[in-house]
Write a structure and sequence with these properties.
Elements (H helix, E strand, L loop, with lengths): L10 E5 L5 E3 L5 E3 L3 E9 L4 E8 L8 E4 L3 E5 L3 E9 L8 E5 L5 E5 L6 E6 L3 E9 L4 E9 L18 H12 L6 E2 L11 E2 L1 H11 L9 H4 L7 E7 L15 E7 L2 E9 L2 E6 L2 E6 L11 E7 L8 E4 L4 E4 L1
Parallel strand pairs: 7-13, 14-15
Antiparallel strand pairs: 1-4, 2-3, 4-5, 6-8, 8-11, 9-12, 10-11, 12-13, 16-21, 17-18, 17-21, 18-19, 19-20, 22-23
Helix pairs in contact: 1-2
């Protein structure tokens, strides 16, 4: 105020938006939500002075960052996913940069819907380091080893291999998902799945026959008794025992036995999802009756030895690739 000896020294303070910034009768301001507001000081005779105030969001920096995996082995030509885990979880500065130490071996691409996840692609045999970096320079790394595709132990009979890798698994699950919503349930169905009819065991058999995993038809009842060659029982839950999917890997067959003439089989996709042929047709659905203990059911989780055991992985229905949690 000028002059300093002015008689009218009473000032009235006001704000253009109380939600953004408040002002006391002494001219003290308090920030609210992010935005811009104008503070006005008005004298008794109507003279005014204004100040534009910008309120920014409170900045919470990332304190620590790590990856969900520090080492990863993948075969050439395949893809996988990595996830960055930051603390605190409510950090406001979340922009992350993903890089590869050698893009000729492994490339990395940040997912479009999240700064914290990225997809890697194995280009050539070798080792590369994937690094995720925060805006203020904090880093986390994962060493990725790319190996060549494993040759089956029995290459003279490719229709019945005894060993394989992720590529064969992806091929099988992609083929299974091809028939979601396109097959009607028909008990004791035969022929190709492309004919549009199937039941549970016929569907599972045809999926794995198509990709060369098995060449012997197995009825539902026999799945529970090693009816399929080159398999291992991952878990066996007898009637009355609680059961779960914690040891199941993508591509595993889940066999359920109710009574001598009533059985069901379906394929585990990981991430608590399965694909099955049921009276609704071929559908992808969530796991059911998990951790139940009932006298009616006996269950087995059956693993094809051709597939890798990876309970911490799942088949991504959008990208049609195997990803890791």
């Amino acid at each position: 105020i000028t002059p300093k000896n002015a008689d009218e020294t009473r000032i009235t303070w006001s704000t253009s938006n109380k939600n953004i910034v408040r002002v006391t009768s002494f001219g003290v301001i308090h920030g609210g939500k992010a935005g811009t507001a104008t503070i006005t000081a008005r004298t008794e005779n109507g003279r005014t002075a204004k100040c534009k105030v910008t309120v920014k969001e409170k900045t919470i920096s990332i304190k620590t960052i790590r990856m969900n995996r520090t080492n990863l082995e993948i075969t050439k030509g395949n893809t996988s996913s990595l996830k960055a885990i930051i603390t605190p979880s409510n950090a406001t500065i979340k922009k992350l940069t993903w890089t590869s130490s050698n893009t000729n071996i492994v490339t990395v691409k940040k997912d479009t819907n999240s700064e914290k996840t990225a997809t890697i692609t194995a280009k050539a045999i070798g080792t590369a380091t994937i690094t995720v970096t925060t805006e203020d320079g904090k880093t986390a790394t994962c060493t990725v080893k790319v190996t060549k595709e494993t040759t089956p132990n029995n290459p003279t009979n490719p229709s019945n291999p005894t060993y394989g890798d992720t590529q064969k698994l992806v091929e099988s699950l992609k083929y299974a998902c091809k028939f979601v919503g396109k097959i009607k349930y028909k008990k004791k169905a035969g022929g190709k799945l492309e004919n549009g009819y199937s039941d549970c065991s016929h569907f599972v058999h045809r999926v794995f026959e198509h990709t060369g995993v098995m060449n012997k038809f197995v009825k539902s009842l026999k799945w529970g008794y090693h009816g399929c060659p080159n398999t291992t029982d991952v878990a066996h839950f007898k009637k009355g025992e609680k059961w779960d999917y914690s040891n199941a890997s993508p591509g595993d067959v889940i066999w359920e036995h109710y009574r001598s003439d009533s059985n069901h089989v379906y394929i585990y996709l990981g991430n608590r999802k399965v694909i099955e042929c049921c009276p609704r047709g071929v559908v992808v659905t969530g796991v059911r009756r998990e951790n139940s203990s009932t006298k009616k059911y006996e269950r087995k989780i059956i693993h094809f030895n051709i597939f890798p055991k990876a309970p911490n992985s799942y088949f991504d229905l959008n990208t049609k690739t195997i990803k890791y949690k």
